[in-house]
Amino acid sequence: MQKQARDIGANRAFAMCAIFLGTAEYMQGRFREAMQHLHKARELYAEIDAAAGEAIALQRLGVVGTALGQMEEAQEYIQKGIQIAERAMMKPHCLVRLYAALGRNRLEVADYPGLLKAVEAGLEVEAQHGHCITCNVLLYPVATMAFLTSGDGEKAQFYAAKAEESATAFGSNYFFGLTYQVQGMVHGFREEWEAAMQKLRKAKQEFQKINVIYEAARSDLFRAAVLMRRGRAKDYLEAGRLISGVLPTFVKLGAEAMAAQARSAMKQMRTM
After folding, report:
1. 8 pLDDT above the threshold of 70
2. Which runs of E-coded beta strand occur in 14-173?
3. What are the phi and psi torsion angles at 231 (to 5°)?
4. How much is the pTM?
5. pLDDT of amino acid 101
6. Domain range for residue 269?
């Protein structure tokens, strides 16, 4: 289909093919191939002055760049997307997704004020322009972490519940997985240990069903973090097993930020 679109000069169709290929490759853990297709999609959308398409291509470049650990470059993609979205026909939809991507980018570098600022901007757009399930399933999990890291447990719980509501309406294993991840972290913060473990196991299972190995590995890393927070002797053994299991996955995928977090956790355990 991509070749046919190119052969007849249908740039919009070619761009759509490229963005869907890039998204699929990201889900499969082929991050560098995803970047190539998303760059092509952005280029084609820019050629035909399709602002919404270009903004979404930049949003997805930001998501993949964040996964690769290219944090500053990913942030630049997203900020450029926000600028372009201002003239898009689907401006609110683009902006909510871009702010969700920006929030996740800021979360990965522990820029919690930046995370909260991005989420609040996304929620403001959502409040002004109505609710969109497709956008909200991206925003609400990030909002949960924004309020959790800012110390507002009540709002974190509220958006964790909203995330599950949206994931249920959307009916996607991927978004159930993202929801269970953040719900697990909320339970861990509240020292509800068994509930945290259950949610993070469920997150991994949802991602395994659709072979999203990156997020499945992240779920195990988050479970290790909760175990280390609880701090029983056997917890460190299990956390070490989980971290040792996911580190090769992150290295293979080129997920530098997650690999660095895994190495840091292993180093921390050696000092205990």
Report:
1. no
2. none
3. 80, 20
4. 0.93
5. 98
6. 172-272
